[in-house]
Design a protein that fits this description.
Layout: E1 2-3, H1 9-18, H2 23-41, E2 44-47, H3 49-64, E3 76-80, H4 107-114, E4 118-123, H5 157-164, E5 170-175, H6 181-187, E6 190-193, E7 213-218, H7 221-232, E8 262-265, H8 267-270, H9 277-292, E9 296-299, H10 308-324, H11 342-353, H12 356-368, H13 374-395, E10 401-405, H14 420-424, H15 431-436, E11 439-447, E12 454-461, H16 467-482, E13 500-501
Parallel strand pairs: 3-4, 3-5, 8-9, 8-10
Antiparallel strand pairs: 1-13, 2-4, 5-7, 6-7, 6-11, 10-12, 11-12
Helix pairs in contact: 2-3, 4-7, 7-16, 10-12, 10-13
């Protein structure tokens, strides 16, 4: 007997296609793994056995009929709960949408289903994606599978934890300021934020419309590449005017050589206040590993990156205030009962439907967009955005990719950071990539020397050159595997617990 967490997404798809495993067996093993592990991890808000088993039946029926199977046929997938999927609630981990039934399926989710994936459930998140810990969920916190007293990161912490606990091999998350890459780093899995516009956002509840992007989590770079191919197959989505035509060729770049290619290092980032010594050491080791594999390390300067967090916390809240104004207690969402008039119903519904962080961001956004303040801060933030984007463009004239930390520290204990400002600094290494719109990927490189928790390096590529992330990520993965680093992706305490395959 083997467990689902011993197989990659590619291996599962190959076994199903060959008939070695049935999709139904795999789906049931994933559901069993969720049942066995959820008590400790709490990665899911909703488990969908009916949808999973029905999708698996369709895959098995297609194979029995001799039909060609799609590339990820039978592979279990989890979906962040800000993405619509018919047959599920889409709550955004908020009381405001606690009973909201998905009226349609998001394009990104549909493309994973079209690729043959089996939907296991909807994962926990920070409320409306406002956070870096998943502790702001209105329903329950999610625990890091490597140490359940610690956070998994956020806002896509449920998706990262589900992969790290071996419940599913693939999951989808969204990334507005680091919400894929930071939890991937803290949970020891691979997480990728593609270039803005590479993946359709249609059907994903918006936080910051100029910043949000959907991307995959996986145990290996190869699995993430296969998921990316699925997400971009079909090209431009007419339902999302910002989506672009991107060729599904990510898996073709897994074995490309990095010999003679150039990797950028930002010295100021490596000496920044707040960066823990074990994370710094891990990223330096990752850079040396790429150098040993034939790449050249080149110092680059991004002089305006100090403004990234300030710009983000103007643009992000302003866009969040605009996007969340629709949740008014009138049309849908939580409605305060027994109100005297419409004004009371709207104000009280929002007061009681939103959590503290969601209120904080919307109030900040309302202030920043108010008369007399808008010109002073919002315009300045957009100017900073232009300068940061130009800094990255200039750096990419010298290098193919840039390597940097993904998180300034390893996973911290629940409640260890109570100051919102300090929590915002958890994304200090990821925010600038959303500001510029470039793609980024987090690759685990082992365990911290002091904490014993996962540490990771972040790779960043020019806009719509995301295939470079796959090439350099795979090279990094090979380098550390050959060095005898611990196998990442499934925390040891959860490996082999439930989810058995015949």
């Amino acid at each position: 007997m083997a467990n689902i967490d011993t197989l990659s997404a590619r291996q599962i798809a190959s076994a199903v296609a060959s008939g070695e495993l049935s999709a139904l067996e795999v789906a049931q093993a994933a559901l069993d793994a969720v049942e066995a592990r959820e008590g400790e991890v709490q990665a899911f808000l909703q488990v969908t056995p009916e949808l999973a088993l029905a999708a698996a039946d369709r895959v098995d029926a297609a194979r029995a009929a001799g039909e060609a199977l799609p590339p990820l046929a039978g592979v279990p997938v989890a979906v962040k709960d800000n993405m619509n999927l018919v047959g599920t609630r889409t709550t955004c981990a908020s009381r405001m949408l606690e009973s909201y039934e998905s009226p349609y399926t998001a394009t990104c989710v549909q493309r994973m289903l079209d690729a043959g994936c089996v939907p296991v459930g909807k994962t926990n998140m920070d409320e409306f994606a406002f956070g870096s810990s998943t502790d702001t969920s209105a329903f329950h916190p999610t625990n890091n599978p490597w140490n359940t007293s610690c956070v998994p990161g956020g806002s896509s912490g449920g998706s990262a934890a589900a992969v790290a606990a071996g419940e599913v091999p693939l999951a989808l998350g969204s990334d507005t300021g680091g919400s894929i890459r930071q939890p991937a780093a803290l949970c020891g899995v691979v997480g990728m934020k593609p270039t803005y516009g590479a993946v359709s956002r249609y059907g994903v509840v918006a936080f910051g419309s100029s910043l949000d992007q959907v991307g995959p989590f996986g145990r290996t770079v190869e699995d993430v590449a296969l998921a990316m191919d699925a997400l971009v197959t079909g090209g431009h989505d007419r339902c999302d005017s910002t989506s672009q035509e991107v060729a599904p060729v990510f898996a073709q770049h897994l074995d490309a050589s990095i010999e003679g290619r150039r990797v950028g290092i930002i010295p100021s980032f490596m000496e920044a206040e707040g960066l823990s010594p074990e994370v710094r050491s891990a990223v330096e080791s990752a850079a040396k590993a790429l150098e040993a594999a034939g790449a050249e390390l080149v110092e680059v300067d991004l002089p305006h990156l100090d403004a990234a967090i300030a710009a983000y916390y103007v643009i992000g809240p302003a866009e969040a205030f605009s996007n969340l104004a629709r949740f008014d207690g009138v049309r849908y969402g939580y409605q305060e009962p027994n109100c005297r008039n419409l004004a009371d119903q709207s104000s009280l519904s929002r007061a009681h439907g939103f959590g503290a962080e969601a209120k904080r961001r919307q109030m900040l956004g309302a202030y920043l967009l108010s008369s007399g303040i808008y010109d002073k801060y919002y315009y300045a933030a957009q100017k900073a955005r232009t300068l940061i984007t130009a800094d990255y463009a200039a750096a990419y004239e010298k290098v193919d990719v840039i390597i940097m930390p993904a998180s300034p520290q390893v996973a911290f204990e629940h409640g260890a950071i109570s100051d919102p400002t300090q929590m915002y600094l958890s994304d200090m290494y990821t925010i600038s990539i959303n500001i510029a719109g470039n793609g980024g990927m987090t690759v685990p490189v082992g365990l911290g020397t002091d904490s014993g928790m996962p540490v990771a390096a972040q790779l960043v590529a020019p806009a719509f050159k995301d295939e470079r992330l796959i090439t350099f990520g795979a090279a990094l993965e090979r380098a550390f595997a050959s060095d005898g680093a611990p196998i990442m992706g499934v925390a040891p305490a959860f490996s082999g617990k439930g989810g058995e395959l015949a």
